[in-house]
Design goal:
heterodimer; A: 316 residues; mainly alpha; 3 domains; globular; B: Glycerol-3-phosphate (1)-acyltransferase; 7 strands
Chain lengths: 316, 207
């Protein structure tokens, strides 16, 4: 692996590095001055999250620098870890074993291979069409009809969210945008940066001034104040990154705003599933955050919309 | 080296969260006994053990399954160092005789340094529920009273590799090692087996 010589990428990664340094120092400082037990527990969790961010940002930066194939492999791995968490907590029956094996061992690798090959036509319909037909057919052949509709939905949705939606992230690298050739890594960075920053800022605004819950029965921590404050700040940050994308500042603002809102929707949907299944987190992979799926819930739902909008309006 | 690769592979595939509610290692020999739901069970426990314990532990496994083909036979013999036993019994001897002979074989296989991995249900549960324990554990505990009996609960293995499937799904699993039991001097067989079974299920409830 050669060190990144791309000045744009270096500046972007420098931004993340600076933010993490600031977050680490702030978290450490606040952790020293708070006195109540509740606040101390909150800050311990925040600091654990910041430490995990260092690791995630490091892995992300290294993969982006390593190039196209490695980026696809990274998101393939993310997709695998997410799908495994999803299936583990889902109410499957023995009749789902074979359909899920197809999902894990055939559909998932194939979807990312299609990204790698740049075969957009099949990439975009593999899961909505062919999985919907053939994997469901495999479940029907297995012959277990108990709660069939619900189980078919579990398999289809698991593959849609954890594989199709996640694969839209590295698929950004395959878009052909006139005048932006060879710089698509900026698009990928823009999406991941804005969606994750929006998550963090929604949390921070919610903790600071959150009063009115957004959907109390789904996620007591999400508030209107958090949503508005977080999305607006993330929009501002996204706008400031316009120079790394093919967008004008106004377009960058509109897309960053969309990413923030979609991310919040994703968080709500994935929380509703967790509530339904009676689990708090999808896993324990990332200290302070929960599982992989807890971390990327917003990315899953922002990625396909961002991919589609960028492709529709900007790609050739 | 093969052992390390197999252990790593199993951990990757079944993504087990491992929790120790007893000391990870002990000077005493141990019998790890667990609920049984899949052919992966003992490998998952084995892979969760510290490397040093792994070298000394011997799983008690079904001869018919592990001698079915060359790969399994070699794995059982050289990697896992398994004690292979016959389930059920030949028609020529009484069940009591057969059980006694099996216990003696397992006891002999422990020697004075090996630990065991044992599934007292004797068969795999298709639902993940813990069935009744058979008497082998009790007789072994009587035969080797100084040994630590460590209850182990395996979670989700019946979905990862259910009975009748050959391809494991890479779902998450959990292995919980509980506090060791010993058989009390005046304890009856059925009371002890029920207590041992309760120790295993309790580890699952708390998870």
């Amino acid at each position: 692996m050669t060190p990144p010589r791309d000045p744009v990428l270096l500046m972007l990664l420098g931004t993340v590095f600076t933010l993490l340094v600031v977050a680490s120092i702030t978290g450490w400082a606040i952790g020293r001055v708070v006195t109540s037990d509740a606040a101390r527990a909150t800050m311990a969790n925040v600091n654990a999250r910041v430490r995990a961010w260092w690791v995630m940002a490091g892995v992300f930066a290294a993969t982006l620098a390593a190039g196209f194939t490695w980026s696809i492999l990274l998101f393939g791995l993310v997709s695998f870890l997410a799908l495994r968490e999803f299936v583990t907590m889902a109410p499957t029956r023995p009749g789902d074993h074979r359909p899920l094996a197809w999902g894990f061992f055939v559909v998932l690798p194939l979807q990312f291979a299609l990204v790698w090959a740049g075969w957009y036509g099949l990439f975009s319909i593999l899961i909505p069409v062919y999985v919907a037909i053939f994997v469901t057919m495999r479940a029907a052949i297995a012959g277990d009809t108990q709660r069939f509709l619900e189980r078919a939905a579990v398999t289809q949705w698991g593959l849609t969210i954890c594989v199709y939606f996640v694969s839209c992230v590295p698929a950004l690298l395959t878009l052909r945008i006139p005048g932006f050739e060879g710089q698509n890594v900026g698009l990928l960075f823009f999406l991941v940066f804005v969606v994750q920053l929006s998550d963090v800022l929604q949390y921070v605004w919610g903790k600071a001034i959150g009063r009115r819950p957004l959907a109390p029965s789904v996620s007591p921590n999400k508030t209107w104040e958090g949503l508005v404050g977080g999305v607006l700040c993330a929009t501002a940050a996204g706008t400031a990154l316009w120079w790394a994308t093919p967008f004008s500042p106004f377009q960058a603002a509109a897309l960053a705003f969309t990413i923030g809102v979609m991310g919040c929707a994703g968080g709500l949907i994935m929380s509703a599933i967790k509530r339904d299944r009676g689990v708090k987190d999808y896993g324990t992979l990332i200290p302070g955050h929960g599982g992989m799926l807890d971390r990327i819930d917003s990315l899953c739902f922002a990625a396909p919309v961002f991919f589609h909008l960028t492709r529709y309006f900007f790609a050739r | 080296m093969i052992a390390a690769a197999v252990a790593g592979g199993v951990r990757l595939l079944s993504g087990p969260g491992v929790e120790w509610r007893c000391a990870r290692t002990s000077d005493a020999q141990r019998i790890y006994f667990a609920n049984h739901a899949s052919h992966l069970d003992f490998v998952v426990i084995w892979a969760a053990l510290p490397p040093r314990s792994r070298q000394l532990v011997r799983p008690v496994a079904d001869r018919r399954y592990w001698e079915q083909n060359t790969v399994r036979r070699e794995l059982a013999r050289h990697v896992f160092n398994a004690i292979l036993v016959d389930r059920g019994c030949a028609s020529s001897v009484s069940p009591r005789e057969a059980a006694r002979a099996t216990t003696a074989r397992i006891c002999g296989g422990m020697g004075d340094r090996h630990s065991l991995i044992l599934f007292p249900e004797g068969t795999r549960s298709p639902t993940g529920d813990v069935g009744a324990f058979r008497s082998g554990l009790y007789f072994l505990a009587r035969c080797r009273p100084e040994v630590e009996l460590v209850p182990v609960h395996l979670w989700n293995l019946h979905r990862i590799l259910p009975k009748g499937e050959w391809l494991p799904l890479p779902m998450l699993s959990r292995v919980v090692f509980g506090a060791p039991l010993t058989v009390r001097p005046d304890e009856e067989k059925s009371a002890f087996l029920e207590r041992a079974r309760a120790a295993v299920t309790a580890l699952g409830d708390a998870a």
